Amino acid sequence: MRNIIIIAAAAENNALGKDNDLLWHLPDDFKRFKAITTGHTIIMGRKTFESFPKPLPNRFHVIITRDRSYSTPHEKCAIVHSLKEAYALTQNEETVYIIGGGEIYAQAMADANLLELTRVHATYEADTFFPEIDPTQWELLKEELHPADERHAVPFTYQTYTRRQKSR
User: Fold this and answer.
1) What's the pTM?
2) Domains in the chain, start-ordered, CATH in brackets?
3) Which H, E and C letters describe the chain, residue by residue?
């Protein structure tokens, strides 16, 4: 079975970002994101892609944009114009990661079978939000609290959700 995995960090109020930037600095979460996604294809919206200084190393980037004239000089990137096109382009991949932003997460929630969420234990003013996790659709498999420390101003919890099996 193909794995479509959503990976995100969201605040208690589901805030993801503001003005195309993250709202917090969590080095251990960055390390986890890198460890999980390295070697895989990552699917994202154009604004998420443009928030990076350069493409992330050792990952193939599929960028979704409505702009038919959009292009990028980077060879480890492909441009598509819908999530459906992104899935078609990556159909031979066993695992793909959806990495944002808010609109792409909302569209992908129906297709994903795993959520790797970092829940940031604070609330923020934002312009981009993670969709609500419906407990009838998703089951929390595991969680691991990371307390605030000298490198992390706020505590956060790594949470892994799996899609609930439909009862017959």
Assistant:
1) 0.95
2) 3-163 (3.40.430.10)
3) CCEEEEEEEEECCCEEEECCEECCCCHHHHHHHHHHHCCCEEEEEHHHHHCCCCCCCCCEEEEECCCCCCCCCCCCEEEECCHHHHHHHCCCCCEEEECCCHHHHHHHCCCCCEEEEEEECCCCCCCEECCCCCCCCEEEEEEEEECCECCECCCEEEEEEEECCCCC
